[in-house]
Write a structure and sequence with these properties.
This protein has 166 residues and is of the alpha/beta class. It has one domain: Dihydrofolate Reductase, subunit A (3-Layer(aba) Sandwich). Helix content is 20%, strand content 31%. It has 4 helices and 10 strands. An 8-stranded mixed β-sheet has the order 5-4-3-6-1-7-10-9, with helices on both faces. Strands 2-8 form a two-stranded antiparallel ribbon. Strand 3, helix 2 and strand 4 form a beta-alpha-beta unit. The longest helix is centred in the first third of the chain and has 11 residues. The radius of gyration is 15 Å and the shape is globular. The protein starts with a strand and ends with a strand.
């Protein structure tokens, strides 16, 4: 199973200046619960956007895609393509592999995905990284859970799960 996990604003923004724009602890908790114990595949820029104290993401096999031949990320596996990342992850025996971004990696890997976990943040943000449109013909909504807005999670949000239609 190849899954994409992403948080998206109303206008499909996922980030700006290689940073997450919003603070939404409920989404971070969801991300951690889903990905812990699994392989996570990320692009170099997205990997570098993770605060250094959390790199590599703990209790996960971190696979970083970059064309930089001398790139070093202690504790992570470095590959130069999405295909090699997926093969590396499959060779671990993992039952669910997660693609965690960024924008270009999502765009290039959407056709490989079987499932998309999408946190919809009901707010628009200015950004420079976007998630591609999911075509309704290819994806079926299988789950929707409303998130709770509170002092720590000030943006209304929902957790959606989509499965690729065979």
């Amino acid at each position: 199973m190849i899954s994409i996990i992403v948080a998206v604003a109303n206008n499909n923004v996922i980030g700006k200046d290689n940073k997450l724009i919003w603070h939404l602890p409920a989404d971070m908790k969801f991300f951690k619960e889903k990905t812990t114990g699994h392989c996570v595949i990320t692009g170099r820029k997205n990997y570098e956007s993770i605060p250094e104290k959390f790199r590599p993401l703990p209790n996960r096999t971190n696979i970083v895609i970059t064309r930089q031949k001398d790139y070093v990320a202690p504790g992570a596996i470095i590959v130069d393509s999405i295909e090699k990342a997926l093969l590396t992850a499959k060779n671990t025996g993992d039952t669910e592999i997660f693609i965690i971004g960024g924008g270009e990696i999502y765009k290039q890997s959407l056709h490989f995905a079987d499932r998309v976990y999408l946190t919809q943040i009901n707010h628009s943000f200015e950004g420079d990284a976007f998630f591609p449109e999911l075509l309704n013909l290819e994806w079926k909504l299988t789950s929707k859970v409303e998130g709770k807005t509170d002092d720590n999670n000030k943006y209304p949000h929902s957790f959606f799960t989509y499965e690729k239609i065979a």
